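User: Predict the full complex structure for these chains.
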Amino acid sequence: MNQRLPVQGAQGDLLRLVATGKAESRADLARLSGLAASSVSLRVEELIDAGLLAEEGSGTSRGGRRPRRLRLSPDAGVLAVADLGAHHVRLGLLDLSGTPLVIEERGCEIADGPQVTLDRIADAFDELLATHVPSSVPLRGVGTGIPGPVDPSSQRVVTPSRMPGWNGFPVADHLATRYDLPILVENDANLMAAGEARWWPASENLMVVKAGTGIGCGVIVNGHLHRGRGAAGDISHVRVRSDSSIVCACGHPDCLEAYASGAALMSALQESGIEVSRPADIVTLVDDAIPEATSLVRTAGRRIGEVLTVLVNFFNPDVVAVGGSLSAAEPLITSIRAAVWERCLPLATRDLEIAPARAGRDAALLGAGTLLLEAALKVTS
Amino acid sequence: MNQRLPVQGAQGDLLRLVATGKAESRADLARLSGLAASSVSLRVEELIDAGLLAEEGSGTSRGGRRPRRLRLSPDAGVLAVADLGAHHVRLGLLDLSGTPLVIEERGCEIADGPQVTLDRIADAFDELLATHVPSSVPLRGVGTGIPGPVDPSSQRVVTPSRMPGWNGFPVADHLATRYDLPILVENDANLMAAGEARWWPASENLMVVKAGTGIGCGVIVNGHLHRGRGAAGDISHVRVRSDSSIVCACGHPDCLEAYASGAALMSALQESGIEVSRPADIVTLVDDAIPEATSLVRTAGRRIGEVLTVLVNFFNPDVVAVGGSLSAAEPLITSIRAAVWERCLPLATRDLEIAPARAGRDAALLGAGTLLLEAALKVTS
DNA sequence: GTCACTTCCTTCGATTTCGAAGATAGGCCG
DNA sequence: CGGCCTATCTTCGAAATCGAAGGAAGTGAC
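Assistant: Here is the predicted structure of the four-chain assembly.
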């Protein structure tokens, strides 16, 4: 159906282990793949001959002969990835090991509808490819993040809010008409979680909270993105305890999003006569020690923390990583921590780490790379 | 370390597929295991020679030759399993495919401490083995459910409530001094979830709520029990929205358990002057249409449902199964459903099933069987 | 420096696994 | 009832995989 990397069976596993940085040498591969060392050597030989892997110097000794370090060949291919926001899109090219070659941000109104938006992204990809990648290096996959729910089976957008014209649109099919390659379409918070997971190699169970204009969350279970039936990870429409009562856009009263999202904080600040245009502005206000902003952020953190309390008890993750533009405001994570430590079972918080996201603002793009590689290397048989 | 079934590598996978009822013929095994049909035939031959598998008649045709049905040999072995409650223990013997040979319930005070209790269970096992199993059929594993948290790495009981003397007790190690076999020690709600999972073969993601004296919950992700760091599945100490304020035994105010558990309902009824001694009595009262009981159960269901709302949005399971002695009260599940349908995202409830547990009162014992088999067949290499 | 030891990687014969082809056994239909 | 179809299971040579042995390239102790 799609042009795939010319690998078969075990070769794909090996390539993935190298690409994701889990293995750096033949010995690593043997340990992690479960194959015999001799088989690994053979497969690696083939992959090098095929131009997908390359040997590059030697690693550090672990007490014996130094390993010969393996890398994905820079000529093996590139991935084109995008992360769509409400008013802009971040997009770029990665090599097959997920290292960014070029990343840029462009203005782009999601309200223009899927056709226009996706074509604009594809045009940008073509432009970047022409400029930054020799024509001998092939494009191996295309992926994009969407600020709304994506049905994992059909890769369509389903019942998004704030995305007029997108409901039910077959994003993957549309991209497939332009690229005969593996295509990935996924919710942006899920991509972010997948990207973040690479920075916590010792943790199998992760929650990644994205605190930006909205509130998103992605879940990694046993090292893999948990999709459920397509909606997994939603925390924005959880009911919070509150004295007042705000009706959320979803029609229900007192959703977390209506109290603690960047959008909610911005409108609260504007009511106090403080001018803000983006969630990042709130961070600036907090850094400048504007009391209204700090207090608002602290309350938002406590509310998010209270919701996380339930989920930490239930899911019992190793790590809760907090990202998104608001996460740069220090009081946010502090009050999230306080709420969780206070209320959760000691057993659940015993070794729990609540920390700022490590992957930075390109987390979603990196995550798209990881998942795309997985898709491109899936056993074709 | 332990006496294991005399199988190696792929043989174990095949045996497990037959034992769990996923495969009934060589052809099934080939499809599910990914091995070539010829390899499957060879391995099956070996397993039959070893006395672990047996051929038994033929199955129904799918349009061609009828498959020769495979079963675990009744002589292959038995598993001894127990489920410990506060004042009693259910225990029994299963064959390797998880079919009960004998199950009984005995009085047993958990407050007598681990040594006494576990020895009493082991004595009961020996008795049942002598009575119901020919001595030529070997015992292959021993497992028990505990009404409290169990650390999965050490299989110790950790910070249990209502289990004086058990904190930190190495249950598995203690049993291992008496049985040189695979030992399983697991939280009772988790066992129940594992047992229930076999009744929902089409569902990969399951939540199983146990509504009895306490409120427990087990989670199945991708067909496997999710343990997290050992505490996963706890929902009893989630804070509920409430006008009044009750302090729970855990020290926090307004835990779900303090409002909606069988224990809480019983004390509420007793305050109204209605005599109850076990959660099952509440079900009787509801069946007799006693208004106080019905109303209490309905409120409890709504509270549980409100908590599930958060978890359904987040985890997005295929099925929420409700078990435990209280689940026989019809209004409970109805009001859980109502709360979840009302508040959850349409996307999350689209194909969600909220249903009474299917596995019956022996769910935990059956779950122990499933997990024990897994442990006994784990690759030894 | 040298000797013992560790790790990494390859070589090569033994073993396992595969997969195409065939044998077996039943259903379906005129 | 007799083809024709389908699915199950087995046979057997080809191919992939393994694992023991050994060479290569280090580290660390004396």
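The two ends of chain A are 12 Å apart (CA to CA).
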